[in-house]
Amino acid sequence: MDLNHPLLASAVDLLPPFPSSHPQIQRLDRSLYCQICKELFSGPVSIPCGHSFCSRCIRGSLEVMKKCPSCNEPASEGSIRRNRALEEIVDSWEEARPIIHGLTSNNSRKRSIMNTGPKNAFAAESTKRPRKESTSRSVSPVKQSSDKKEEIDGDADDMIALDPYTNMAESSEDVKASCPLCDITMPIRDISRHIDLGCQPIKPRPKSQGRENLKADWKKVFSGAGLVKGKDVELKKITKPNYSLATPAELRSVLQSYNLSTFGDKPALAHRVQEWILLYNSNLDTSHPKSLGALRAKLNEAEASRRRDKEKGREEMASELKTSDGLARYAQDTKGEFERLRREIMERDKKRVGSGAEAPIEIE
Amino acid sequence: MSLPKRILKETERLLADSPPGITAAPKDDNLRHFDVTVAGPDSSPYQGGVFKLELFLPEEYPMNPPKVRFLTKVYHPNIDKLGRICLDILKDKWSPALQIRTVLLSIQALLGAPNPDDPLANDVAQHWKDDEKDAIAEAKRWTQQYAQ
């Protein structure tokens, strides 16, 4: 077994680690990983002790034990709260990570950019990312308060602008491509969102065009037009049934109300309901929720792959027992077990009949 | 095979950079089943020995602990003759924040710090309590005989 195993090859880390020459950045990066799944937080939530995990991870963990995986302090599902600040940090880190990674692994290039100076820092700042109003606004007070900081920020922005990754992303604003799943043509930047939503058509995002539009947007917010009515009803968390008391019919009706398969015996139904509630409820803890269709597909995929594993194991066993070699091996492996059973039976019979009786079982 | 990303990541890291004195590699036919070796810690009766273990990741991992068992015979109050290990983090103290690496390091630490007050092998634990020196000598003999 080596690193070239095909299954491991597919797992090659999408996020390359930072070099050890930058321990501070390594630490920052590490602190944004969930302790349970060891991935960047997705839909992070906090529990009373203050530790944070992905919603899905901690919900799954609390089903098994009602305590914090990090510090063992008691915790329950009802105490889970969304951690929006952490989510925003992870989102922006995900965007910034490739850029910073490029900088840490290419020191010489960094220095040459530093020398070209931070002259046009503000120009870069004002023209970039018109959509991300909130982030640039939160940065600016810091810039004004200290000149030193401004220089550093300026450098960073300069480098961002020079990075081939972002350049590509910005110039591809209007480039179109077809979705790998459904072949509908759309702008490249919309494709990942389109796939996340389960291949639904994406409405073009309104581009903010200066003050006029801003004003109109605010008007909409104040008049309440931005709120989608009826959304609250749909976005309620599912209450868990009592799995030991619920009848199969009740479980089926839960599954039916979400358009899920109602096939299987009670344990299978309960397992499906449990997993669905986990997926569904954790999906409500993120700002990038998936469509119900995507959740359903995920549930089905997990179930199918579990079934495949089980069948594979059974087939292997059956095919092994067909060959005389395999049969011999099986006999060898389970010899101890047979011996033990035989001895036990002999002793039991001896006790029952009395010391004078012969051992009634003879096995060659 | 359905293998969570976390298991693949852990495996990758174990293969690329394993903790000192510990090796762990999955079997070719089942990536949830690991062959493990642990070197006996220095200044313990197990020093110089290399102990084979098997580790299995159940389907519920990491919500449930991995199953670990010694394959090499060990004379230790917390390890019975079937190789089963009495270690809190493999049972009620398990947490999904732990991983294969931390489990194996804990097992190595357990070799260095036998605890006869929480025994699994009662006769060994009694031996340890009655005559620690003799028990340690016995453990050394076993290490020489079985763990080379």
Automatic annotation (TrEMBL), chain A:
Its main location: nucleus. The keyword Lipid metabolism does not apply. Keywords: DNA damage, DNA repair, DNA-binding, Metal-binding, Nucleus, Transferase, Ubl conjugation pathway, Zinc, Zinc-finger. InterPro entries: Rad18, SAP_dom, Znf_RING, Znf_RING/FYVE/PHD, Znf_RING_CS. Residues 107-154, 301-364 are annotated as: Disordered. PROSITE patterns: SAP, ZF_RING_1, ZF_RING_2. Residues 34-72 form the RING-type domain. It catalyses: S-ubiquitinyl-[E2 ubiquitin-conjugating enzyme]-L-cysteine + [acceptor protein]-L-lysine = [E2 ubiquitin-conjugating enzyme]-L-cysteine + N(6)-ubiquitinyl-[acceptor protein]-L-lysine. Coiled coil: none annotated. GO terms for biological process: DNA damage tolerance; DNA repair; protein monoubiquitination. Residues 243-277 form the SAP domain. Pathway: Protein modification; protein ubiquitination. Residues 126-135, 301-323, 332-352 have a biased composition (Basic and acidic residues). Its EC number is 2.3.2.27. GO terms for cellular component: nucleus; Rad6-Rad18 complex. It comes from the Eukaryota. It is found in: Nucleus. The keyword RNA-binding does not apply. Belongs to the RAD18 family. This is Postreplication repair E3 ubiquitin-protein ligase RAD18.
UniProtKB/TrEMBL annotation, chain B:
Its EC number is 2.3.2.23. InterPro entries: UBC (IPR000608), UBQ-conjugating_AS (IPR023313), UBQ-conjugating_enzyme/RWD (IPR016135). The active site is at C86 (glycyl thioester intermediate). SUPFAM superfamilies: UBC-like (SSF54495). Residues 2-148 form the UBC core domain. The keyword Lipid metabolism does not apply. CDD domains: UBCc_UBE2N (cd23813). Pfam families: UQ_con (PF00179). One of its GO terms (molecular function) is ubiquitin conjugating enzyme activity. It is an enzyme of class 2 (transferase). Keywords: ATP-binding, Nucleotide-binding, Transferase, Ubl conjugation pathway. It comes from the Eukaryota. Belongs to the ubiquitin-conjugating enzyme family. This is E2 ubiquitin-conjugating enzyme. It comes from Tremella mesenterica (Jelly fungus).
